[in-house]
Design brief:
alpha/beta; about 35% helix; about 20% strand; binds 6-O-phosphono-beta-D-fructofuranose
C-alpha cells in the first residue's frame, strides 16, 4: 500500500510575478485542511541545497497574503541545480550538476511531494526532478504568459494592467507636447504584454517578437497621423521585438547560470523615428514595475485556484503535471506540454485581427 501523504513542500522559482503569495496561501491552507505539513523551500531550489533555508509554513505564515506582491519564500532566476555555477580556481565559472544533493535532501526530509511554482525554466527543472523520482506538480507563473498548456499564467493580467495604465497616462503628455513615445514592456520572446496593453490603450503602433518590423512602415504610420492633425503617437514595443533581418537587443553577455537579459530596443526604435520623422521622440522602459505590487483580482483568483488545484493533484497522486487554466476549469496537463514549445502570439489571433481592424500598425505593412 502507498504510504499516505504527510508532508509536502512548495517553492517559487524564476522572476517573481504578482500572485505568488496567493498560490502559497492556497497550497498551505488546502494542505493543512488535509492534515498535511507544509515546508517552504526558500529561493527556488537553494533551500534543498542548504536546508537551513527551509521553513515550516503554518496558517499564521500565510495570513493576509492574498493581495501581496513578491513571494514570502524568495525567488531567484539563477542556481538551476542541474547547472549550478561553480567557481574554478582561475575565477571562471562552470556549471556542475548538484541535482543529486537536492534529491537526497528531499528524501531525507521525508517530503512526499513538491509543488513547484514557476515559469518555463522552473517547469523544465521540475520535469527533470520528476525523472529523478521526485513527485512534483507545477504551477504556471509568469508575467510573460508564454507557457504552453495553459490559457493563461498568473501574473500576466497584473502586468498588462500596469502597462495599460502607463500607456493611458502617456497619451495626455504626448498630445500636450506633440511628441512620440516609445514604451518598452517585458515579455521575453513573446508579445503578449505589448499586444494586450497596446490594444487596450489604443496605441498607434505595437511591435512584438512574432512580427518583425520595418521601421519605415512605423514612421509612415506616424507621419500619416501627422497629416491628419494628430501630432503625437504612442508606440509600445516588446523587449523581444526586432526589425526584419535584425537581432534581439540584449543587456550584456549571457552569464553561465541565467538567461540573457533583454532590453534596449525602445532606445533604438526611438532614435530611428526621431531621425526619420524629425519628431521629438522619448522612451519609457516600464521594467520591473510590471512585476511588482498587488495582483489584480483576476490574478489573485487564478493563483488561489491554481494553488488549491495543485494540492488536489497531490492528493490524487498525479505527478509530473502542471495545473492549467482550461476555461471554465483548472486541470492537470503533462509538464512536457508546458515545456515542449513556447506559447507565442498566434498571428491570426482574434486580438491581432482586432488591432489590425482598428488601424493599429504592427510595422509589417499589412
Ligand atoms: O520572465 C519574466 C521577466 O520579467 C521577463 O519579462 C524579463 O525579460 C525578465 O523576467 C527579467 O528578469 P530579471 O528579473 O532578471 O530582470
Amino acid at each position: 500500500m502507498e504510504r499516505p501523504i504527510r508532508r509536502i513542500a512548495v517553492n517559487t522559482g524564476g522572476g517573481d510575478a504578482p500572485g505568488l503569495n496567493a498560490v502559497i496561501r492556497a497550497v498551505v491552507l488546502s494542505a493543512l485542511r488535509r492534515g498535511w505539513e507544509v515546508l517552504g523551500i526558500r529561493k527556488g531550489y537553494e533551500g534543498l541545497l542548504d536546508t537551513s533555508k527551509i521553513v515550516q509554513l503554518t496558517r499564521e505564515s500565510v495570513r493576509g497574503l492574498t493581495h501581496l506582491g513578491g513571494t514570502i519564500l524568495g525567488t531567484t532566476n539563477r542556481g538551476n541545480p542541474f547547472e549550478f555555477p561553480f567557481v574554478l580556481p582561475d575565477g571562471n565559472v562552470t556549471p556542475i550538476d548538484r541535482s543529486g544533493e537536492v534529491v537526497n535532501h528531499f528524501n531525507r526530509l521525508g517530503i512526499d511531494a513538491l509543488i513547484a511554482i514557476g515559469g518555463d525554466g522552473s517547469m523544465r527543472i521540475a520535469h527533470r526532478f520528476a525523472g529523478k523520482g521526485i513527485p512534483v506538480v507545477g504551477v504556471p507563473k509568469t508575467i510573460d504568459n508564454d507557457l504552453s498548456g495553459t490559457v493563461i499564467t498568473f501574473g500576466f493580467d497584473t502586468a498588462v494592467t500596469v502597462a495599460t495604465d502607463a500607456l493611458d497616462r502617456l497619451h495626455s503628455t504626448a498630445e500636450a507636447h506633440e511628441r512620440v513615445f516609445v514604451v518598452e514592456v517585458m515579455g521575453r520572446y513573446a508579445g503578449w504584454i505589448a499586444l494586450n496593453s497596446g490594444v487596450a490603450s489604443s496605441c498607434d503602433v505595437i511591435l512584438i517578437p512574432e512580427i518583425p518590423f520595418d521601421i519605415e512602415v512605423v514612421c509612415r504610420k506616424i507621419m500619416d497621423r501627422e497629416a491628419r492633425g494628430r501630432h503625437f503617437a504612442i508606440v509600445v514595443v516588446a523587449e523581444g521585438a526586432k526589425p526584419v533581418g535584425g537581432e534581439l537587443v540584449t543587456r550584456g553577455p549571457k552569464e553561465v547560470d541565467r538567461e540573457v537579459r533583454l532590453g534596449g530596443i525602445a532606445e533604438q526604435v526611438a532614435a530611428e523615428i526621431e531621425h526619420r520623422t524629425g519628431k521629438e521622440t522619448r522612451t519609457v522602459v516600464l521594467g520591473h514595475l510590471q512585476r511588482g505590487g498587488r495582483p489584480t483580482t483576476f490574478d489573485r483568483l487564478i493563483a488561489l485556484r491554481f494553488g488549491a488545484a495543485a494540492v488536489r493533484m497531490v492528493a490524487e497522486r498525479r505527478f509530473d503535471v502542471m495545473v492549467a487554466l482550461d476555461p471554465p476549469t483548472v486541470r492537470a496537463v503533462p509538464l512536457t506540454d508546458a515545456i515542449d514549445r513556447m506559447k507565442n502570439v498566434p498571428l491570426d489571433s482574434d486580438t491581432v485581427l482586432t488591432a489590425r481592424d482598428l488601424g493599429t500598425c504592427f510595422g509589417d505593412g499589412e
